[in-house]
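Worked example 2:
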Amino acid sequence: MKKLFLSLLMITFGCVAFAQKSLVLQALKKYNVSEEVLNPNLKDNLEKYAHEVQRTVTINDKDKVYISSFDPNKQDPPQWTLVSVNGKNPSKGEQKAFEKEHNQKTDFKVDDNSYKISKDDGNTLEITYQYDPASVDSDHGFFKDCLFTLHINAKTGRLEKMTEVNLKDLKIKILKATKLTTEVTYQYIEKDKTYVPLNDRVEVVIKLLGNEMPMITTDKYTLKP
């Protein structure tokens, strides 16, 4: 009897998850929106194109600006190059940190049961979701406690931005964060029928020795001709 109950429970949860995603897919179809917008790894599309990234990290009102470039046509790695930091050649430590970050590969997946339509007024379609915890590695474990929202222009059928907010205090490695918000704006490349990020902004508020310290990271992506 216990096994039968567990089986029925799993089937019920599976049906709910299917129903939730089915409603989302229907809404996308209604506004002629590509299902690609549901891909949580849209940033990976940038790897098809040569591009430059200007990253600005702001802590205590002080900016640090990193310029890097990516060339998909390079036959041998690294395809990434850290060009400068605050207009100067990067130090060995900065180069090492850059290489470590860009050698990491992630493949996040969405928990189908978490899909919800939070807004659909004929002008804007908003879809919320959370990551499947099983797809989140140890370095990004905090993402499982964040809510993501897709903001779609219902008139044009285009994804305009994705926002993220934490649902509770987070532990990011050894640090405690009371706030994590992200906003990524996208551009649609018509000839390739795909999205790439245009800008993103991440604000993290770290709690350190009883004080809160905000850190803002902005990335601006420029495709090269």
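The chain is about 20% helix and 45% strand. Helices lie at 2-30, 92-103.
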